[in-house]
Amino acid sequence: MPTQTTGRTLLSLVLGLLFASMAAMGSCPGDFHVLLGQLQKQAHAMQDPSSLLDPYMRIQGLDFPQLREHCTERPGAFPSEGALRGLGRRGFLRTLDATLGLVLRRLAAVQQQLPEAGRLGRPPAARPRAQDLEMLKMARLNILGLRNNIFCMSRLLGSSWDVAEPTQAAPGTSPPPTPDPGAFQRKLEGCRFLRGYHRVLSSAGQVFGEWGKSPSQGHRHRPPRALPEDASRARPSRRGRRLVPRGQLPR
Amino acid sequence: MLLRDCPVISKRKPESMALFAVFQTTFLLTLLSLRTHQSEVLAENLLLTPEAFKVSVNSAQRCLHLQWTVHNLPYNQEFKMIFQIQISRTETSNVIWMGNYSTTVKWNETVHWSWESELPLECAAHFVRIRSVVDDARFPEWNFWSSWSSWQEVNVQDSTGQDTLFVFPKDKLVEEGSNVTICYISGNIQNDISCYLEGEQIHGEQLDPHVSTFKLENVPFIRKGGTNIYCEEKQRKAISNGTVLFVSKVLEEPKDFSCETRDFKTLICTWDPGANTALDWSKQPSQSYTLFESYSGKKKHCEEKNRCNWQITQDSQEIYNFTLITENYLRKRSVNLLFNLTHRVHPMSPFSVQFENISATSAVMTWKLHSLGDYFTLLCQVELHGEGKMIQQHNVSVKANGKYLLNELEPNTEYVAQVHCADDNHFWKWSEWSGRDFTTPEAAPSEAPDVWRTMKSGSHNVTLFWKPLSKFHANGKILFYNVAVENLDKPSRLEHRSIPAPANSTELTLDGCSYQIRVTASNSAGASPAAVIVVPAAPGNKEVEEEIIEGTEDGFSMSWKPQSGDVMGYVVEWCDRPQDPLCDFQWKKLGPNTTSTVISSDAFRPGVRYNFRIYELSTKRIAHLLERKTGYTRELAPSDNPHVVTNNLTSHSFTLSWKNYSTKSQPAFIRGYHVYLKSKEEQCQPGAEKAVLPDDTVCCQYKIDNPEQKTFTVENLKPESFYEFLVTPHTSFSEGPSGTFTKVRTPDEYPYMLVHVIVPVVICVVLLVCGCLLKSQWMKDKCYPDIPDPYKSSVLSLIKSKENPHRTIMSISDCIPDAIEVVNKQEGSKIQSLGTRKSLTEPELTKLSYLYLLPTEKNYSGPGPCICFENYTYNQAASDCASCGHAPVSPEAPPSQWGLLTSSENLLKALEKNYMNSLGEIPAGETTLNYVSQLASPMSGDKDSLSTNALVPPPCSEYKMQMAVPLCLASPPPTENSDLSSITLLGPSEHYR
């Protein structure tokens, strides 16, 4: 099982790096189906809890049956699959991108809270933790790769998208400052957040799958104005309705 | 209880507490006795009560901070006072702690004191009150307790009426091994609550209906992320709340703290930091390290966790006293190091290592050093490595540049030379190694090759073998081998031959002369000394008996007896793979004083027979075969049985033969054979033993102890029987595999008789017939000459002339016998008459001649009357015939020996019918040999009785036609078993028909 997990993680890392480098070089795949296939594969690989949630739970000591049972997605933290389906393609991509951006930030915050054994020498007991920390790093790279492909798909669909400015949650959506709930609650909250993240990616995979079944998309890159309905959905008037995740990883 | 984390103003030991109790009792008694006298100052007691009493809380550290003042003290005076403090939990009556705090107070001074609770302060409300007494000898009138202050309530968490469960302490940082008390406050929750630590339920005690506490002792470090403790409501099965106990590893003292300099500019201090005590969620960073030097008073925070650089100032400080301090949120540790800087010099590694004047056996090594000053002398160590191991090690004292002559090197060898240095005056540490490799040039091989030869018997072909020189002796790459052949018997030109390496043999064809052969090995630097071997004109190898030796896994141990004193050495030769055509020829040369050796080889295999020849090498370098040995490192069981051929199969025996079976190619010495014979017979033949085969069948076993006997005849068998046999070899410890038995069936005896009896008889008959045919005329003359014509007889002319001129010769057919004259003669005379029969041409011719009728009884021997017919005409012929073919026979002889006559009887019988039918009708010319007798009287009784009484001669009362038969027509004497195909011998019954 650890071997499978490692292999899968390695594959996803390679994919993530590949796509990240492609986007960084400004070379997006021009074929809709090729890009869609890549998005599906990425979403499929990243929906697996073993890619992020499981190592997180091991690091935090939450991998016990009682706690695992209670590590459920907080309702409303992430858009439901139905809500994602209801979005236009560009809206869907923006929402997904925003979700991934949030996950990246929270993930970075978590990683900051986890000192590595590195410089003082790593005792044998620390090795599993090091592997899990490595998986968190890989997960971050995978998210970056997926975001880049989302960017490419967005361009393919004719949406103007400033990749330098990652999608932010709308002002005022940040939760108000609350008293420190304690490390335990923050751990549990992070767990629930990641559960929602994997569920969202699963839903995203389903949506991408439906894109592939749709005969209207069985063509190569369209000019930006070829998708009027998506373009209209991408207008600022709709932006306010964009679904954004509300969950957070513990800071 | 006071703990270190609280800002403690005063601490009181348990001993002090006990003393305090005694003191208090005494004090109260005293107080009571003095009560009357002091009543007037009672009002003043109230003035000494602590005032402005306040309690603050540090819930993270579970501390209660108390502060108060004492008014009404004389101005500008200090009083030694004792403050008694009571702490209650949940309610004022539940005092959980009471203690005294002694201190000196001034007028209006605020006094501080702290108390740390085991239980998190959030878990329950706490109440505190205080009173005081002046404990100063200067003011004995003040020496009485004041009144208690009012209770001060401390309530950190008010969960009353809340539906939330709280667990305390929250995110507590403790050190591994500590004892921790936690609690939960359930508020209005009515369900049962279970709490878990890392998945395992923990059990505590109930403080009140809403609060339970859990004491965790000696908490372990589990992970940097902390130990999770959480509680759930059983009915809802929902995690209500939890907390994380951040357990830090115990901060270790740095180990192996050490400082040194490499250039007198920087001190490098290193240490082993031990475990990292950092925790997640920023609860505790990694421990920090600080270097403090006491002489200079300087301090430096170390960036790295295991080393720190300290800049050496130019103020000529030699002695350094360093303190390395490490600390985290929970603990602080330090180690000290005092040293002289000049004793901690770790030189930098030498550089620019070079080699000069490299020859085959020496080289000069040079190197340079980083300067440490003019006063420093370094000790350098030079090491020479070859083939992965150290060969030489030398110490050199060096100021600046080093140089060393490396000797005793081997030609054509790659070496690695390296050098490192240390302070010669105060050794501290060697520098790192600096080195280079170099290769010495080649030199001429230093030793003659090891040469040996094989000679084919009966020819002058010599194959020379030599072993490659070892690297040590080759001194370079051997390019070729030179072979020089010199005729020792007659002066001739030396024959040279150069064979390129890596060949290890060459074949020479010599004539019948003696030759000296010299072999040298050459490399680029020259040739080796010559190996000399002499091949004599006549090898003169005598036949040497082969001796069996026993080998082991380690080889063959063998010894030999020297034959002459003039010995240069001995050579043992063998083949490592004797079964291969090339055989991998090997030899071993031994000194003249050696008479035993052990031959071992990695190529030796069990079950392979190795043959060794031991030669004596004379001082003239001529080899003589001394001994032959043969053996196995380990004998194995024979893998196959001989292929057996069955020969000479008879009804009572057969012969087994396995002559193609080679005993020398077997995996063990064949000591003989076992012949197993299976048959239906229960008993084994003599020479065989009963044996039980692995399949539990019983058979007979014949043992052959001579391995060269490869035939065996199984005898005393029954005809027409099945036998099964198996021949298997046996060695000293086992026998061959239990193979398949071969079936044999013995034939019956009849064909044997046919072959052995009938065939010779037929051959004899054929030969006899052939002889008769070849000598037919002679036989005719002798046995059945032509019957003379009576009309031409001289007798007739005589009769005519003397008696009756009219007399004619009577025809026999006209003659009717009417009278029979019976002459009864003695047997003796009859026999005699037979034996002394004479020719009719003799003078007795005129007398009556009788042809004796013999009795039909074959065994007739007794005397008795016989019937005779007189025949003038035939007397002579019959007599002749008897004389040529019939030997005298004794009366006792069996009837078979009467064959001739018996045969005649048969013929006569054949003619009897004719006679009986037409007696008198037979012309004289046709019946010249027929004589008819008339039965006088038939024999009474049955025929069998006649037969059985044949030995009793009856009276001559029987007549029978009889014919004289020439001998040549008679059959040979019949044997018992002869087949009467040509001549039928009638039985007695037929004689009497």
TrEMBL record, chain A:
Coiled coil: none annotated. SMART domains: LIF_OSM (SM00080). Residues 1-26 form the signal peptide. PROSITE patterns: LIF_OSM. Its main location: secreted. It holds the Pfam family LIF_OSM. Residues 235-244 have a biased composition (Basic residues). Keywords: Cytokine, Disulfide bond, Secreted, Signal. GO terms for molecular function: cytokine activity; growth factor activity; oncostatin-M receptor binding. Residues 209-251 are annotated as: Disordered. InterPro entries: 4_helix_cytokine-like_core, Leukemia_IF/oncostatin, Leukemia_IF/oncostatin_CS, OSM. GO terms for biological process: immune response; negative regulation of hormone secretion; oncostatin-M-mediated signaling pathway; positive regulation of cell population proliferation; positive regulation of inflammatory response; positive regulation of interleukin-17 production; positive regulation of MAPK cascade; positive regulation of phosphatidylinositol 3-kinase/protein kinase B signal transduction. The keyword ATP-binding does not apply. It is found in: Secreted. GO terms for cellular component: extracellular space. SUPFAM superfamilies: 4-helical cytokines. Belongs to the LIF/OSM family. This is Oncostatin M. It comes from Microcebus murinus.
